[in-house]
Batch of 2 targets.
Target 1
Amino acid sequence: MAGIEFDRQIFASPSEVQRKPAPQALGAILLVVALGLAGLVGYKIFTQASQNNAIAAANAQVEQLQQQLADSQKRIEELEKRRKPAKAEPPAATAEPPVVAKNSPPKPVYRIAAGSALPPQPKPVAVAQTPAVQSPAPSVVDAKIEAKTAAMQSELAANHEAWEATTNRLADVVGVVGQQQNELSETRETVNQLLAKTQRHALSFELQRGSTRMPVGPVTLQLRSVDMKSQRYSVCVYFEDRCIELKDRVLNEVVVFVVSRNTAPLELVATRVLHDQIVGYLQVPVEKQPQQK
């Protein structure tokens, strides 16, 4: 009995099976409707709050603009008051009519008669004389002349200062030009000396290996060794019985050496390296070039 399993759905009626999912579907629909209503209410609240914020910001801007306009209008009024001060007008003098007394008695009229019988003679009429045109006062003329003289003197002083400044500048320019000319002359002399040192004369030679020496220009050369495979050689340069040995030199190498102090350097170049012989030339300065016997 314990191992037997029954399918309860077989014994259940089909009406009960169909009724069970209905409450679940209704709950889901109600949940969806509630969520929609909540979203709609939240959206309305959000839009109303945003509108209220926008209106408040617009009102604040309008108030700020009104305040600025009021401040500017006050400033304009203050400026107008400063530029056009009110002038106090003098009070108009009111002419009071003379008080005439009513029912005043008439004043007595007095007449004066001349003591002589001659008729009265009219007074001579004074002829109006036109005033002569007066010349300006001498003080005004002197002041004008002094002003013109002062202006001319100031202008002359300014021109004199400008001439002095120009003269000083010309003197400075002349001094600079003279200094530049001295520098150019010194540079020219230096270049000439360098050119004199660089001007050389080539003396060709052919050296045989052995104990024999060959005079070439101001020195004497002696070939010590030759390596035909590597194209190398060794030479001894004699000057006043003193040997300057040039060891392990290469073909076409420019060998620069000095035989004594305060003398121009010499250059030795080997153009061919043979079995027991080298062929080349020795470059010596033109000024130090010895006379060949």
Target 2
Amino acid sequence: MEDNSQEVESTEVVVEREPAQLSIREKLKQELQSTNNTQADETSAEEPTQQPEQAAPVEQVVQQERPMLVPPSDMNSAEKDAFLNPTAQNAHVLQGYLNRRAYETRMQYDRKMQEVNQLYKQNQTVYDTIKQYEEEYARQGISIGDIARRSIAWDKAMKNNPYQTALEWLQSYNINVNDLTERAQQHYQQPPQYLTKEEAERIAIEKYQSIADEQDRKALELYNERVVEYFMNSKPLFKDAETASQLEAEMAPVVQALNNTGRYSSAEEVLETAYNYVVNGNPTFSGIMQKMTTGPVVQQQQAVAQKARQAAKSISGSAGSGTPRVHAQTIRDNLRRRFHGE
């Protein structure tokens, strides 16, 4: 009996029934839960896209914390106003300041380089002498600095006590004073050598010629300086210091090349040719010249047009001026004028 019961249980068919319908309260509860889950998923999905929007206030804070710049101390009042409130109308003020500062910087650099070159020329002979004998004294274990200090020390000692210093100097080189005296007597016993008349005249002529050449060179330099100054004052591009310096730098090699040709008779012609060559060949300078020349022409044309309009207005008659009257002596004359449209 037990076996049969087990078989019945194993072969029992389970019927799948449809779930019972939920009540209205349970349906509302499920819909509320599903709505909350959906909103949570959408929020988690939108979080990565909202991160760049949160970074925007940080950039605004960085821009607000940017420090305000103080105008340079060498600016005048107009330049400081343009620096603090730059606009398209006051841009030329800042351009003028930058050009002036660039010119002053270049002039300071050139002045310092001239000082360095002058010092180099002054010490060039000493430097060349030191370099010539530096290796020789180095082989003896003596530095050039020691040689220079010893030479200056001997010179000062000779000025203070020449006789004692001379004896000490001779003793340092193992020279006997008596031997030195005998040699000096033998040297003075030789007959002196005199110049001949021709040699004296030749030396005098050479000195005179060198003096005359130096005077001619200075006179030519003075004349060229005056020519250059007059030429620069006559050209509008030389009014601005920075523009003038750049123009001079480009004209210098051209002027030198034109002088070497020997085809020009005056310095004015050389400068004018070099100026036209550089200005017409450089688009920056040519553009500035075009603006400077077209500006007055346009103003002149506008003035002529204004005068023409005023003249036409005065001929036709302005408002309230009335129609010009034509005086006729007779009725026939009046009719004839009307017939001809006068």
